[in-house]
């Protein structure tokens, strides 16, 4: 393996990427493979499969982003987890260490939500400047990279106990499209990664490397080219620009807390949907008093988190849902757009399990007494599923700068969120269907469980055709500043019903192609 | 479980105290103990009454009839420190006052769980109650010792996952 590159702080020929998760990690490798020099700055530390811990709270302590954040709005998370609006990772590899691996393409109609749903009162719907035809080949590349099951000739995973209960109930109530999903988890050895051992701690980092994560695939492969330098414990504070309004580099705090300045030809922001807008807003200047890339006023707005919720159910006999893959099971029948159900857009139902410690924390936060504890008493006999539906972008669901500051004295993100009536109608529909599924296989009790701190965070730097409607163009390039890019889920114009990461990865591969071409043409 | 230790009081001494205070015994200066002497918890900063009250509160907040008191004792033991002392003292005074209003001598004197739960409901919005409840979520459920009682198997990597250990062994569907 070639020695990982080391670039000078004054080297202004490099592309600086902020964050090394699903978006940033993939972009870094894709650029490095094409010969582009990259410095990737990551606020967290480096952990590999041998470091991951099969213990929910210990793993949380190791990997989670626990720097301060503040919350507002009427979502229940603001009350139950006011300092923890999202459950995401701060580490090389980002939240691709935590993720469960569900990898679905958007449906055709979801790229054009405004056109297909029509205007929805209170929602800020917009069409993506992309569509299925444009994205098809990028999805192919993303699926091959991640080794997604059920496509490209790769077999699906076997169903675990939790799946078997889910499948039987789904078929009993008449659902047709029910299977173990399209998962970025190997059903057989693939791409130097081994097959899933059904360990059941997918959320805590896969110790076998059977699940794709940029932490142990794209990042080391990018480093092996000699074109990528990853600096961990490097917290980017501010993006700098010149008097022509082009970005010139970033200031960051290194692992010793010293402020450094890295020059750059291009800056790509991929810090997930709270940190990316926060960084743009914190980078305000005399030329850009409202923050970088924010002439539209859209930076931070339209925060989406998917209409989520879970349904757990208890049965007469043991299920032991924690055994095996956490999320390999899906019902797709409700993912269609069918306003006769009382809402626009659709939702997926996916198997889910939590260990006992997290179940106690998330089943009904704040609840106590026997209604709560008797449910936990039946933990061994529980099955579980998760709802993932399209939520409505709303202008005031947004990330702004809080008065609270972090350890570096930087203003932290405040996350304001309230459900749209469409979100509530969809969640209630999904709760009823989920409960019906489990009752069909003899559930003794069903538990419609509220949303957890957000795992899917989208939309706060939305993509738009016209500069006045959004922050970036169809390549994730700022409408205002041509050498500034956004490379994570914050680009999403709308959220679709599908788990977002496959699309984040496809967009990052596509963006690398665009950046390389624009660099060669001398445009950036 | 370093805070807990088998202790040497005679069974008879313990039982006589157990009769006086109900299920939980104040096992004489600085200790509370199980009536069956299976465990004891030493208190240093807070009083025996306060520790016994916290323990009963913990049981009433998250009642699991198959979990012995020792797990609850571990979960509330962290309040027995100087900087929690005042919060605990004030909280329990308020709790016992609420119990008096409901017609009992104090919280521990209410014999039925339902009666104690009603008293807790009347103070559930107080920071004291919320602190105790919130602390229990990890203090109780993150004790590895209780996991098997719920059937939860915990760590599985070192055993090779469940691929050959029943990930799909459900037999009643
Ligand atoms: C429990 C869980 C399960 C999930 N399951 C699925 C699933 O099954 N399918 C799916 O599609 N998605 C899933 N997701 C979501 C998925 O993980 C995210 O969509 C994806 O990782 C987001 O990629 P990203 O690049 O936007 O951000 P991330 O992967 O979060 O990466 C952002 C990185 O940027 C770093 N960073 C932030 N700010 C700075 C700064 N100022 N300076 C330097 N570095 C910074 C962070 O530390 C982090 O490492 C799941 C998420 C969780 C938490
Ligand atoms: S269940 Fe499979 S994918 Fe999940 S952590 Fe275990 S081995 Fe990895």
Short summary:
The complex is a heterodimer of chains A (524) and B (173). Chain A is of the alpha/beta class and 524 residues long.
Structure description:
The complex is a heterodimer of chains A (524) and B (173). Chain A is an alpha/beta fold. Chain A has one domain: FAD/NAD(P)-binding domain (3-Layer(bba) Sandwich). Chain A contains 12 helices and 17 strands. In chain A, the strands form 4 sheets. In chain A, strands 4-11-12-13-10-16 form a 6-stranded antiparallel sheet, with helices on one face. Chain A has a 5-stranded parallel sheet with strand order 5-2-1-9-17. In chain A, strands 3-15-14 form a 3-stranded mixed sheet. In chain A, helix 1 runs parallel beside helix 7 (218-224), helix 1 (22-33) runs parallel beside helix 12 and helix 6 (161-172) crosses helix 11. The longest helix of chain A has 20 residues, at 501-520. The model of chain A has no long low-confidence stretch (mean pLDDT 97). Chain B has one domain (11-140). In chain B, strand 2 (31-33) and strand 3 form a beta hairpin. In chain B, helix 2 (48-61) packs across helix 3 and helix 3 packs across helix 6. Chain B has 6 helices and 3 strands. In chain B, 44% of the residues lie in helices and 5% in strands. Chain B is mainly alpha-helical and 173 residues long. The interface between A and B is large, with 43 and 36 residues. Residues 185, 196-202, 206, 208, 210-211, 324-325 of chain A line the site of iron/sulfur cluster. Flavin-adenine dinucleotide binds at residues 18-24, 41-44, 65, 87-91, 94-96, 98-102, 203, 235-236, 270-272, 275, 279, 327, 455-456, 488-489, 499-501, 504 of chain A.
List the SSEs and their pairings.
The complex is a heterodimer of chains A (524) and B (173).
Chain A: E1 15-18, H1 22-33, E2 38-41, H2 56-63, E3 70-72, H3 77-80, H4 113-117, H5 132-146, H6 161-172, E4 178-179, H7 218-224, E5 228-231, E6 235-241, E7 247-253, E8 259-263, E9 266-269, H8 272-282, E10 307-314, E11 330-331, E12 347-351, H9 356-362, H10 370-377, E13 382-389, E14 398-405, E15 411-416, H11 421-439, E16 445-449, E17 484-486, H12 501-520
Parallel strand pairs in A: 1-2, 1-9, 2-5, 3-15, 9-17
Antiparallel strand pairs in A: 4-11, 6-7, 7-8, 10-13, 10-16, 11-12, 12-13, 14-15
Helix pairs in contact in A: 1-7, 1-12, 5-12, 6-11
Chain B: H1 11-21, E1 25-26, E2 31-33, E3 40-42, H2 48-61, H3 69-76, H4 82-101, H5 113-122, H6 127-139
Antiparallel strand pairs in B: 1-2, 2-3
Helix pairs in contact in B: 2-3, 3-6
The structure holds flavin-adenine dinucleotide and iron/sulfur cluster.
């Amino acid at each position: 393996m070639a020695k990982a590159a080391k670039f000078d702080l004054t080297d202004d020929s490099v592309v600086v990427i902020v964050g090394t998760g699903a978006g940033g990690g993939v972009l870094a490798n894709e650029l490095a493979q094409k010969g582009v020099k990259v410095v990737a700055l990551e606020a967290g530390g480096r952990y590999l499969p041998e470091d991951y811990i099969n213990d929910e709270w210990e793993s949380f302590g190791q990997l989670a982003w626990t720097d301060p954040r503040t919350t507002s709005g009427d979502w229940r998370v603001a009350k139950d987890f006011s300092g923890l609006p999202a459950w995401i990772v701060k580490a090389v590899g980002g939240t691709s260490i935590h993720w469960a691996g569900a990898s679905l393409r958007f449906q055709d109609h979801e790229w054009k939500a405004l056109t297909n749903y029509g205007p929805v009162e209170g929602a800020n719907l917009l069409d993506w400047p992309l569509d299925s035809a444009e994205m098809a080949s990028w999805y192919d590349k993303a699926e091959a990279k991640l080794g997604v099951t059920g496509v490209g000739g790769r077999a699906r995973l076997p169903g675990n106990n939790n799946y078997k209960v889910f499948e039987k109930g789904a078929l009993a109530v008449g659902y047709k499209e029910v299977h173990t999903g399209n998962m970025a988890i190997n059903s057989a050895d693939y791409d130097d990664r081994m097959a899933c051992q059904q360990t059941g701690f997918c959320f805590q980092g896969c110790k076998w490397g059977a699940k794709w994560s940029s932490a142990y695939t794209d990042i080391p492969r990018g480093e092996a080219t000699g074109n990528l330098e990853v600096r961990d414990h490097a917290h980017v504070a501010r993006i700098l620009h010149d008097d022509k309004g082009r970005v010139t580099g970033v200031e960051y705090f290194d692992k010793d807390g010293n402020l450094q300045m890295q020059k750059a030809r291009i800056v790509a922001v991929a810090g997930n949907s709270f940190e990316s807008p926060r960084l743009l807003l914190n980078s305000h200047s005399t030329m850009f008093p409202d923050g970088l890339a924010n002439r539209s006023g859209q930076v931070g707005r339209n925060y989406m988190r998917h209409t989520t919720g879970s349904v757990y159910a208890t049965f007469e006999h043991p299920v032991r849902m924690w055994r095996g893959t956490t999320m390999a099971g899906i019902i797709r029948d409700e993912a269609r757009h069918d306003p006769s159900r009382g809402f626009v857009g659709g939702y997926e139902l996916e198997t889910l399990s939590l260990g006992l410690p997290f179940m106690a924390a998330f089943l009904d936060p704040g609840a106590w007494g026997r209604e709560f504890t008797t449910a936990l008493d039946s933990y061994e006999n529980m099955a579980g599923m998760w709802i993932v539906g399209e939520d409505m972008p709303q202008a005031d669901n947004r990330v702004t700068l809080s008065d609270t500051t972090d350890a570096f004295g930087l203003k932290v993100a405040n996350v304001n969120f309230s459900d749209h009536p469409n979100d509530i109608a969809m969640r209630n529909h999904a709760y009823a269907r989920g409960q019906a599924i489990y009752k069909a296989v003899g559930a003794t009790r069903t538990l419609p469980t509220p949303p957890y701190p957000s795992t899917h965070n989208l939309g706060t730097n939305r993509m738009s055709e016209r500069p006045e409607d959004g922050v970036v163009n169809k390549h994730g390039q700022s409408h205002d500043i041509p050498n500034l890019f956004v490379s994570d889920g914050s680009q999403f114009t709308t959220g679709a019903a599908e788990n977002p990461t496959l699309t984040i990865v496809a967009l990052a591969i596509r963006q690398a192609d665009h950046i390389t071409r624009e660099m060669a043409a001398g445009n950036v | 479980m370093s805070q807990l230790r088998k202790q040497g009081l005679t069974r008879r001494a313990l039982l006589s105290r157990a009769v006086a205070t109900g299920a939980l015994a104040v096992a004489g200066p600085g200790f509370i103990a199980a009536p069956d002497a299976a465990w004891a918890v030493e208190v240093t900063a807070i009083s025996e009454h306060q520790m016994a009250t916290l323990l009963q509160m913990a049981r009433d907040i998250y009642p699991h009839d198959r979990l012995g008191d020792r797990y609850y004792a571990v979960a509330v033991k962290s309040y027995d420190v100087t900087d929690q002392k005042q919060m605990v003292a004030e909280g329990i005074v308020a709790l016992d006052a609420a119990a008096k209003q409901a017609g009992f001598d104090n919280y521990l004197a209410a014999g039925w769980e339902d009666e104690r739960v009603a008293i807790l409901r009347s103070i559930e919005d107080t920071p004291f109650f919320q602190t105790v409840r919130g602390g229990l979520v990890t203090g109780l459920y993150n004790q590895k010792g209780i996991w098997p009682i719920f059937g939860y198997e915990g760590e599985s990597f070192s055993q090779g996952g469940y691929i050959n250990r029943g990930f799909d062994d459900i037999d009643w569907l």
